[in-house]
Amino acid sequence: MTDIPLLSLAIWLPIAGGLLVLASGDGRNTAFSKLIALVTALFGFLVTIPLYTGFDASSASMQFVELMPWVRDYNINYHLGVDGISMPFVILNSFITVLVVMAGWTVIEYKPSQYFAAFLIMSGLLNGIFSALDGILFYVFFEASLIPLYLVIGVWGGKNRVYAAFKFFLYTLLGSLLMLVALLYLFHKSGSFAILDWHREPLAMTAQSLIFWAFFASFAVKVPMWPVHTWLPDAHVEAPTGGSAVLAAIGLKLGAYGFLRFSLPIVPDAAQHFAPVVIGLSLIAVIYIGLVALAQTDMKKLVAYSSISHMGFVTLGFFIFNPLGIEGALVQMISHGFVSAAMFLCIGVLYDRMHTRNIADYGGVVNTMPKFAALFLLFAMANAGLPATSGFVGEFMVAMGAIQFNFWTGFAAATTLVLGAAYTLWMYKRVVFGDVANSHVAELDDINSREMLILGVLAVCTLAMGIWPQPVTEIMHATVNQLLDHVAAGKL
Amino acid sequence: MNFPLPDFFPASAEIFVLVMACVVLLADLFKSERQGWLPYLLTLATLAGALAIQVGTAGADTTLTFSGMFVDDRLSDVLKSCLYITVFAVVVYSRDYLMARGLERGEYYLLVLFATLGMQVMISANHFLTLYLGLELLSLAIYALVALDRESARSTEAAMKYFVLGALASGLLLYGMSMIYGATGTLEISAIARKLSDPATNMDVLRFGLVFLVAGLAFKIGVVPFHMWIPDVYHGAPTAITLLIGSAPKLAGFSMAIRLLVDGLPTLAVEWQQMLMMLAVLSIALGNVVAIAQTNVKRMLAYSTISHMGFMLLGLVSGVIELRASGDIQLSYAFGSAMFYTIAYVLMSAAAFGVLLLLTRAGVEAETLDDLKGLNRRSPWFAAVLMMVMFSMAGIPFFIGFFAKLAVLQAVVAAGYLYTAVFAVMLSLIGAFFYLRVVKLMYFDEPLDTAPLVASSEMRALLSVNALAIAVIGLMPQSLLTLCATALGQAMK
């Protein structure tokens, strides 16, 4: 183990780079700003690699811990650390940031330095969320990360961006403010803001229930779970491509991560008590939202609904309380990080050329963009959960876990494999296959080398994780088992 | 009769400001045409000098002087230092605005200095009369300042309204004080606190007086239902004066609450905390909800002030006062959170009005929401400044407003008012909407007016420092929290 504060670097390097990009301004030298942005994003990714290579997979405790007093009066510490649950997301986030910076390279014309700065700062804040071990530190990153995305949607978004930006911000703030009260209550009870102390803090059932619902308000909105999902399609549709990609790949994982870090270990008995509710909502998300996705005519909206449906699978996996379920859900989260980002970037590729997201405006894209069509097919298959892609591993594990838990739950969950295939492939068919639909499609250019690089890298990740998921799952075993033992022991 | 000369040393900053106010008056009278900057620089020098004296003479001890009417303690040192810094910023921000409107005259500087002196006296008051004296000096200076623009009917109306209602509030306060004098036989604040434990004291009269004290106080800091003057005066006064009213007097108002209620009537805490709780809850609700309907930024900020002052009161409500056997009082941390909130609010308010002043030019008033449109295209940095202020006021981290809210909410939860905390955060959510709307106008909309911003470099620099303070203290709030805690002589549980 080295003494380099890797997690701090992962957080503050992109933020510092973002401020530098901001300071470089939007004058004549935007190329310079972009270069700083890309270099920072790359370095931000490089510093997270030792987190994987130096990680001790046999241990369930926090690693790479940094602890410094921050606000002594309230016993708030600058306390960072990662375990098998959070470490993959730090890396995933830093990785996606590099791709997003590349994706916006030539597309963003209005104030590019502010755009790139927003993404870099957001990347640092998101890393902060995944590595914070102090309740207030977590909350601070959690809330602060709303600001850049609010601006990204509002400034570079589509026609209805103002509505979408407000809805996104206020919806998420509603949940997190209730969580803040719960955090303060826990501090009042335990005299500490350390999340790990809260894991041990005994709590009566009434208190657990109230805290559970306060956390639920925050995380369910963020996931988002049915019926508080309505902000997501709006946000996705209006956000620029990069915003959608980060929101889908990382933003949605925050809520799920919150369930694992807060709800399950801090209020295990309430979590078990209310698990049927969560499972029910998750199944509604999987089936009903899957059907809703079928009916969409806007590609981005379709992928947004598909994300909600996939995230329903994740929350389902968490609340059936067996190792297959939780590990499967985590794999699903990482896989969805690659696949949904790739789907949005693919739609972005089409949108940059045609300036429409309407499925009906397309048709026969394969004739003019064969390379693109091939990559898009891979991601569509992964989204549908085809074996040998990363989408399959997670869905299969969760479905197995669900069947162990209860046959009919598993049965209902497995319908996602049918629905997912239906809406994704039907969309793919309408957009890509068939005759060239109109003169605009006929004039399309195939993807350039920059786009090829971005999508190619994602394609490799998707396939690699589908064929050989072991490197990802092995780091989770110890942490997940410890979590499940902790939940089973309860606090009453 | 023996009449010893009082110890002037603890009041040296006040004496300095008074002397310098007279110097400014004379300098203004005898300055030549080319020395128009003289009163401005003298005023700034006065405030910087007062700060130096205050910091230089600060000590850990509490000193009483002028027969116990005047107190120099750590609370007064901290609050007065903040006061000088705030007024300094106010004067720098206001100059261009006033010059463009022909209002930059000696009277302005003189009245600002007298208002400062009034606030200093209020902060150091250990006697009801001293407090009243300071309050009236502040109020009279501000009544005149609101009407500084004699040509403007709106300003004059605001000044009249403020004057009439202010006089009524002073009357209420004075009446309350007289009741308390009737019950305890003294006007000295620490003596009143001692009298409270005397079984011979008539508690009914005392409680009766307390009601009027709280009403007067509520009027001065502007909380519901004594808030009527705030939107009209904020709106009617020239923006530079709104900046003054909206910032520094909140510090004095906080000190007034501490001196009157915590120092003066500690054992009646149950009674006044109940009253303040009502005021706080109503203010947070009304301030946040009504602000949404405003199209004028000054009115919107006025309602936001009301909600912020309500939040500050929540800190006072949650405090526990412990009387030690030695006669000292030990205050719980909640009072420190209220003080932190007040200082944070003053910082944010100064920056918010500062940006508004920056947007005005000769003949152009920036005060409707539309004037903020597209600011990001005109000046990315000052759009970022106002954005930081807005997010800070909405209580979003990493800005000072978040820690201010956190400190108060922590105190509220610790005092067991869990549902009050839930109520307060839910209304903060409503409040977040109109702060976000300002950000939306600056960043998402096209500018209506593309003229470049005109402002002196010292104003730009100071405004930038002000905004950075909001961000930096938001990242590292520890030292300010400690300062507030030690100023109030409190201990964490």
Automatic annotation (TrEMBL), chain A:
One annotated GO biological process = ATP synthesis coupled electron transport
The subcellular location is:
Endomembrane system; Membrane
Q: NADH:quinone oxidoreductase/Mrp antiporter transmembrane domain location, by residue?
A: 134-417
Q: Which GO terms describe its cellular component?
A: endomembrane system; membrane
Record carries keyword Magnesium: no
- Superkingdom is Bacteria
Keywords from the named record: Membrane, NAD, Translocase, Transmembrane, Transmembrane helix
**What residues form the membrane-spanning segments?**
6-23, 35-55, 85-108, 115-130, 136-156, 168-188, 203-221, 242-262, 274-295, 302-321, 333-351, 372-393, 405-426, 452-469
For this UniProt entry, the molecular function terms from Gene Ontology, in alphabetical order, are: NADH dehydrogenase (ubiquinone) activity; NADH dehydrogenase activity; ubiquinone binding
Q: Family membership, please give it.
A: Belongs to the complex I subunit 4 family.
Protein's name according to its UniProt entry: NADH-quinone oxidoreductase subunit M
Q: Which organism is it from?
A: Methyloversatilis universalis (strain ATCC BAA-1314 / DSM 25237 / JCM 13912 / CCUG 52030 / FAM5)
UniProtKB/TrEMBL annotation, chain B:
Q: Does the keyword Metal-binding apply?
A: no
Mind telling me which InterPro entries this protein's record contains?
NADH-Q_OxRdtase_suN/2, ND/Mrp_TM
> How does the entry describe its membrane topology?
Multi-pass membrane protein
UniProt-listed Pfam families: Proton_antipo_M (PF00361)
Q: Where are the transmembrane segments?
A: 12-30, 37-58, 78-94, 106-123, 129-148, 160-181, 205-229, 241-262, 274-293, 300-321, 333-360, 381-404, 416-436, 467-488
Q: Which GO terms describe its cellular component?
A: endomembrane system; plasma membrane
Q: What is its EC number?
A: 7.1.1.-
Q: Where in the cell is it found?
A: Cell membrane; Endomembrane system; Membrane
Q: What class of enzyme is it?
A: translocase
Q: Which GO terms describe its biological process?
A: ATP synthesis coupled electron transport
The NADH:quinone oxidoreductase/Mrp antiporter transmembrane domain, residue ranges: 125-430
Entry keyword set: Cell membrane, Membrane, NAD, Quinone, Translocase, Transmembrane, Transmembrane helix, Transport, Ubiquinone
The catalytic activity, as recorded, is: a quinone + NADH + 5 H(+)(in) = a quinol + NAD(+) + 4 H(+)(out)
Q: Name one GO molecular function term.
A: NADH dehydrogenase (quinone) (non-electrogenic) activity
In which domain of life is the source organism classified?
Bacteria
Describe its function.
NDH-1 shuttles electrons from NADH, via FMN and iron-sulfur (Fe-S) centers, to quinones in the respiratory chain. The immediate electron acceptor for the enzyme in this species is believed to be ubiquinone. Couples the redox reaction to proton translocation (for every two electrons transferred, four hydrogen ions are translocated across the cytoplasmic membrane), and thus conserves the redox energy in a proton gradient.
- List, alphabetically, the HAMAP family matched: NDH1_NuoN_1
Listed under subunit, the entry gives: NDH-1 is composed of 14 different subunits. Subunits NuoA, H, J, K, L, M, N constitute the membrane sector of the complex.
Q: Which family does it belong to?
A: Belongs to the complex I subunit 2 family.
Protein name (Swiss-Prot/TrEMBL): NADH-quinone oxidoreductase subunit N
Source organism per entry reads Methyloversatilis universalis (strain ATCC BAA-1314 / DSM 25237 / JCM 13912 / CCUG 52030 / FAM5)
**Which gene is annotated as encoding this protein in its UniProt record?**
nuoN
